[in-house]
Amino acid sequence: MAMAIRVCLLLLVFLSSAIVSFSLYEDQVGLMDWHQRYIGKVKHAVFHTQKTGRKRVIVSTEENVVASLDLRHGEIFWRHVLGTKDAIDGVDIALGKYVITLSSQGSMLRAWNLPDGQMVWETSLHSAQSSKSLLSVPINLKADKDYPILVFGGGYLHAVSAIDGEVLWKKDFTAEGFEVQRVLQPPESSVIYVLGFLHSSEAVVYQIDSKTGEVVAQKSMVFPGGFSGEISSVSSDKVVVLDSTRSILVTIGFLDGDISFHKTPISDLVEDSGNAEILSPLLSDMLAVKVSKRTMFVRVGGEGKLEVVDSLSDETAMSDSLPVADDQVAFASVHHEGSKIHLMVKLVDDLDTVLLRESIQMDQHRGRVHKVFINNYIKTDRSNGFRALIVMEDHSLLLLQQGAIVWSREEGLASVTDVTTAELPVEKDGVSVAKVEHTLVDWLKGHVLKLKGSLLLASPEDVAAIQEMRMQSSGRSKLTRDHNGFRKLFIALTRAGKLFALHTGDGRIVWSMLLNSPSKSEACERPSGISLYQWQVPHHHAMDENPSVLVVGRCGSDSSAPGVLSLVDVYTGKEISSSDIGHSVVQVMPLPFTDSTEQRLHLIADTEGHVHLYPKTSEALSIFQREFQNVYWYTVEGDDGIIRGHAMKSSCAGETADEYCFTTRELWTVVFPSESEKIISTLTRKPNEVVHTQAKVSTDQDVLYKYVSRNLLFVATVSPKGAGEIGSVTPEESALVVYLIDTITGRILHRLSHQGCQGPVHAVFSENWVVYHYFNLRAHKYEVTVVEIYDQSRAENKNVWKLVLGKHNLTAPISSYSRPEMFTKSQSYFFAQSVKTIAVTSTAKGITSKQLLIGTIGDQILALDKRFVDPRRTLNPSQAEKEEGIIPLTDSLPIIPQSYITHSLKVEGLRGIVTAPAKLESTTHVFAYGVDLFYTRLAPSKTYDSLTDDFSYALLLITIVALVAAIYITWVISEKRELSEKWR
Amino acid sequence: MDKGKAVMGTGRRWAVDFSDQSTVPSSRDILDPPGFSRASPEQDDSATSRQKKDAEANWKLQKAWEVAQSPFKNLMMMGFMMWMAGNTVHLFSIGITFSALWQPLSALQSVGKIFEPFKDNKVELLMPKLVFLALNLGGLALGIWKLNTLGLLPTHASDWVSSLPPPQEVEHSGGGFAFH
């Protein structure tokens, strides 16, 4: 047996050493992988429908994406993902052909060509301090054949040429501490009015010549109450602002440079006064104010007099006003009623005139409407038609037109926060495979086509047919489990608190579910999803139960806010149960025990140092009490540089009557010196990782025993000075120290320090090794270090006879208290790329060799064999070592272009990579998420346990038939010859 | 003469008949030459048969020894082939090694059959058989040695622990950074 395994392994090693990179052919793209492009939750939208031709909408999103969408189908014409720190503050269209974006707190101004999205110019604006930023693209302003764009940010007001991005002039406001609130431009005037506040209590109006930037006039007036900062400009010479107590609306008129205040207490407008809030929509001569859960429309009269004209319920979303024909201005409002939403477009001047009233059936799981953008078009009967772009609570983007949803985009998937996998249902009886494969004739035809293709006999049409056949081959998108485990569901939790189930076959959404759908109780207004766990994975017994996932959420952003647990059935996407658990959620620990229905036990720790057991059943309690002494808990306090270990103490029956609550006692602490070390990264092994063997055999038949433990914590610390950006410190000042800490006893098993190195540290921990990536300041290069951990105390098990007879303790359960002796091997290499995230492939039995999946700065994923990060690599490996697949040591890790598993695609804004094993040992699922989603199947040692998809069964069949025929014919011939021989 | 005539009749000129087996001189036309005794070879029947059997037994023994020694040649050839195959595991070396193992085994199995033709009361087959066995065992040993040099024998500790799963852990822990 062992011999057979060795032979197999040796053959495997041969195979794998023969092929270093795993590339695919052009026609294999899209067979196993899919890629979905998203943009994120839309912040601003600008329609561009004036010209004939393609109608489009320019959007900027919370994922820092600026994109141009097709208004007809919702497809992306072009898209640019700006960096994570390059948040977009404003977007507009200038000159009718450029998309202008302002980002990075008003310090980056870019122009993109509207049709194709190419960057036309980019201007970096001087910025002295962080402040709110403002982008204003005046329509009629012209200065010497140039069209200035006015930008306020970082204390400066800039006028930038729309044509080439040159700064025409700039005005420094940093000295005064002046915050620009509005830039207003009276029509047919070259003077612009810049209104702002000085120290939130003084209103200042500058009149600036738009050609030169010179201040023509300046007026200021102190308002004794102070302003709260929220402002709504209602006309070209008036703005309305709230005072600091949020109870008085102040109308500021600055006609001809004279400032006048007009105060109106909220209580004059409505009876139930409370804290008011000015809503963002820009309406002419009117403003929207939210007071105690009602939205009021307040008209601003000629002398700054305010009057309430209408009021709406709280859950109404409004658009900015839009000029329609005949100098009229309209705006849209959307509100919910049951499962329907009502879209209304009204005239601002006359709220009783409803231009459009539509009601549309809306999916419950999209939540409330968050934003509305409207656009009008002229219908064939010369009347006004309206289309509305709405952003829902789940971040999805929909276009409504003529009472229907024209298209929708699931933009929630651009902000995936946690991912887990789930199985599909088992195939029911009666659905046979033959039905999927159509008929035998079709099957044969297909294979003959494939054969033609492999023999290079196929015509272009045939090639196309083959490609199409491959794409929809053998029910890859069926909703049942398959034999190889290739079909699975990826359950993704998004920032909006929505769960999506994605099919691995084609990436479609099987179901989606908003955790806080409007029907939920009032107790928890807005729970946010934190993380996702596999709650129930039935396999051996309890097969009739559906698997489910646990979503841990929290009512509010504060860490002491009460948590919410929600169980979701994976097959149906329905919420089984949802409960407010009445305590906060600090950490969730899935335990390695399941009850009789295969529900996994979970411990949830709260802020008071208590842990709570779930599920709350007596069976779970009895299981937990059996293992009570062996369950530990540790916390990492990053700010203080302390790691604490806790053990279970007793039931907290004394304080509460909850028998599922337990108190803990502190066992150990590891305190890092705060003046020299700051924790920047911690990592443990994935709890569900399967390790095939504990032994590692070296070339000379020697055995090393891996130190495989789930209770190991990898900690990386840097000097506090070096915690910032790369290059902000000198090599002498910065050091990177990594630790391996046993989380049961708090024992530091290994410590390794890298002088002159700096974070960020990206690490991956699997089996008995850690690979981490950091920056070496001395060499000015990124480095990757591998640390492998071996158990010294088991190394004595070398007597063959004892092993043959099984007289060893290698498989006996071990305790962390048995003081393991361990040693490590490590090696470092240069790596040419900056890294966003690292993951490792995982397979069902852990036999297949591993690959590191490195998410590079270019948003691609590089598959790097673990053999490249092997501490046994030497400069001149011996023949035997070479045979084993040890690669000669080089100072840097190779980046082979063919081993990008994302091939030509980019996973924009890459944030994480998740791997999950398929049933077939050779294969692993890889799911990468960021703004985009990408999925592929990988076989790190090639598919040694199955035939490839393009295996020609027809060729095999034909060969067999031909052989049988040949045998028969030769038999007949030989019979005949024998007979004639006998007759002679 | 009439015989000759008859022959003549069928077209033959002449013939000499060597198959005259008669032992009685009177029946022939020509006298035997002096000193020629017709009956000399078959004088003593029993004596001749014994002699014959002895010769056969000798011959059988000789053959048996030859068979017994035949694996030696095989052994030499195998040795050469193994040397040629080298010490790395690939198809050729594995094929050679397995044939080197298989041949002696099959030979050992059919020892009785191989020596059956030489079975005789008078022939002492034990020694050839033993030699045959010894040589084949030698061949087997060579095969096993080759197997070992290829590293395919489970003689190291590594061969017995390579599929041992990692031990279970008694304690379990979890935790990390607090959610924020």
TrEMBL record, chain A:
Task: Keyword check for Glycoprotein, yes or no.
Answer: yes
SUPFAM superfamilies assigned to the protein according to its UniProt record, in alphabetical order:
Quinoprotein alcohol dehydrogenase-like (SSF50998)
Q: Which residues cross the membrane?
A: 951-974
GO-annotated biological processes: protein folding in endoplasmic reticulum
Signal peptide range in chain numbering: 1-18
Regarding the membrane, this protein is recorded as: Single-pass type I membrane protein
UniProt keyword annotations, A-Z: Endoplasmic reticulum, Glycoprotein, Membrane, Signal, Transmembrane, Transmembrane helix
Q: Where in the cell is it found?
A: Endoplasmic reticulum membrane
- Cited InterPro entries: Beta-prop_EMC1_1st, EMC1, EMC1_C, PQQ_b-propeller_rpt, Quinoprotein_ADH-like_sf, WD40/YVTN_repeat-like_dom_sf
Q: Pfam families, alphabetically? A: Beta-prop_EMC1_N, EMC1_C
What range(s) does the ER membrane protein complex subunit 1 C-terminal domain occupy? 766-983
Q: Which family does it belong to?
A: Belongs to the EMC1 family.
Protein name stated in the entry: ER membrane protein complex subunit 1
TrEMBL record, chain B:
Residue spans crossing the bilayer: 80-105, 125-145
Its signal peptide is none
Q: Where in the cell is it found?
A: Endoplasmic reticulum membrane
This protein is called what?
A: ER membrane protein complex subunit 4
Q: Which family does it belong to?
A: Belongs to the EMC4 family.
Which terms in the GO cellular component ontology are assigned?
Answer: endoplasmic reticulum membrane
InterPro entries noted in UniProt: TMEM85/Emc4
Outline the segment boundaries, as ranges, of region: Disordered: 18-53
Q: Which UniProt keywords apply?
A: Endoplasmic reticulum, Membrane, Transmembrane, Transmembrane helix
Keyword Transmembrane present in the record's keywords: the answer is yes
Q: How does it sit in the membrane?
A: Multi-pass membrane protein
**Organism encoding this protein:** Brassica carinata (Ethiopian mustard)
